[in-house]
Amino acid sequence: MRKKFFERTYLTTLILFLVFLNGAVLTLTLYSHGRRMDATEQICLTEQYAICQAFETDYDGRGGGSDYILQVAYGDFYREKGIGLCFTDANGKVVYSSLEAGLTFPGVGSMQEGKSEAGVRYLLISESVCDGKYVLTYAKDISDLDDEFRSLFVLFLGVSVAASTLLAVVLYFLLRRLNTPLEKLRTATESLANGDFTARADESGDDEFSALAKDFNHMADQLDVHMQELQRTANEKQRMLDDLAHEMRTPLTSIHGYAEYIGGANISEEEKIDAAQYIMSESMRLKSISETLLDTAFVRENKIMPVTLSAREMILRTKEHFSERAAASSIELKVCTDQDFDILGDEVLVELLLSNLTENALKACRKVLDRPRTVELGAVIHGEDRVLFVRDSGIGMTEDQLAHITEPFYRTDRSRSRGEGGTGLGLSLCARIAEAHRATLKFQSVPEKGTTVFVTFTTP
Predict the structure, then answer these.
(1) Helix pair angle (143-193, 2-60), 10° resolution
(2) What CA–CA distance (Å, rounded) separates 339 from 341?
(3) pLDDT at position 239
(4) Least buried of 95, 313, 343, 369, by fewest C-beta within 10 Å?
(5) Contact at 8 Å (CB) between 363 and 329?
(6) What are φ and ψ of residue 436, in 5° steps?
(7) What is the pTM assigned to this prediction?
(8) 135 and 94 in contact (C-beta within 8 Å)?
């Protein structure tokens, strides 16, 4: 099987090379000869024109001398330069000729090739002179072009034969050598198919097979990365399930305990009301967790239907929604830009994104007691990017906290966030919404100074 593949590759490559090489040699030879012939024709035309002009000038200034003598003088002069001349009168009778026998004259004003009886090839050009009294035929020996063409053809043919022989030898040993890395690549492929994800091909060399080996190794590396990513995703899902179970256990335990307390204890109406309110609070917490999980699943599984939205209108709407809550906590909520521009996005999801970020900013500011508490909503165009941002003067976050801030159920302060009804899912949902809009979510924070969240839309 390997022998047949080697033979087919060798013979096919060799035949194709010989065909194209010899075709190229022949084409180059003919092209070179054609260019040389064109150049010779231009030279002959120039010489013929100069001879005609000179003859007419001398004819007009001969002072009554003999036309024949002038023609003989021109014929003898140009014969020494390898140029033959022939003069015929208006009736086509030859008056004087220095041409070899056997040549056929072309028509007046035309050019043609011809062969003499001796087999010499000439380029002939005829033109009338002396106001049509004579027809001057110019003949240039171009047999040297044929000799040059034959010499060039023999040279190129010799180069072709030498190159073909050398190729046949080199190609044979090269293909036999190339078969070795191909076999190694096949072995690595079998190992990978059998589950050995550490198998790699030999990348030594600088040919197509080494490039293929590098691509194979890159594919194996990417496969290994994907396998690790799948494992990481599975671990994250398991951790999320564990966190979800933990988050739900506390409110469920509280609900169950207070329900038993109400049903089995001899308590006052006021205590019953307090217990019922606590049960209601924990129930709302469970509802918030479920709704946020459903929103996250919706964003992940469905394509958004973007519409054109006004950035300023979305910000003003968010400010109006949180104004009362901010005022109740003595937090200044303001819009810090007059810029307006359009963004493409799902109106409900963008509003949900801004709401979650604003709510987190308000929570961060409530924990500040020693300085003014402000939350700023803004929009700005940065180059071709359109940016929405939420800035607060809250407690800020450390670098370690920022690294985990978008993970599900992550809290910078678990006990205090739970007391405020936080689920730890808000920023995870924000990250999903930004990803669905092909936007980026960036956090800048300094502990005890505040946090700024940028949502950058790369398309209008």
Answers:
(1) 150
(2) 7
(3) 61
(4) 369
(5) no
(6) -65, -25
(7) 0.44
(8) no
